[in-house]
Design a protein that fits this description.
It contains three helices and four strands. With 111 residues, the protein is an alpha+beta fold. The protein has one domain. A four-stranded antiparallel β-sheet has the order 1-2-4-3. Strand 3 and strand 4 form a beta hairpin. It starts with a helix and ends in a 6-residue tail after the last helix.
């Protein structure tokens, strides 16, 4: 197998896994309350991954304040006599934790 195939395979799996991930982080909402930004980028992830991370970070129930998800391009890499195209997908969700104070329910989540 040539170097082009190895490069394409490496790029494919890096983008598939969503190599740029961040743990949920506290953010200030327009209301002045504390919310959480959850990122679940990558072709192998979905909105359900964001929802699960938000639920874990909030310790239960939450309200979705905003969602942003988009395919932001990708790259084609040569594979033998053809090419493989890999999309870069970014997803982020802002949530407000329900319960007696977000500060008490916010929990660190490892991804």
């Amino acid at each position: 197998m040539g170097n082009g195939f190895r490069l394409a395979t490496g790029l494919f799996f890096a983008m598939l896994a969503g190599c740029i991930t961040r743990p949920p982080k506290p953010v200030s909402l327009p209301s002045g309350e504390q919310g959480i930004a959850v990122r679940c980028s990558g072709a192998a992830r979905s909105w359900s991954d964001c929802m699960n991370a938000a639920g874990a970070a909030c310790g239960g129930a939450y309200d979705i304040v905003s969602e942003n998800g988009e395919s932001v391009g990708g790259m084609a890499a040569p594979v033998g006599n053809s090419a493989m195209f890999v999309h870069a997908i970014h997803r982020e969700m802002i949530v407000s934790c329900r319960g007696a104070g977000t500060e008490r329910t916010l929990k660190p989540v490892s991804q």
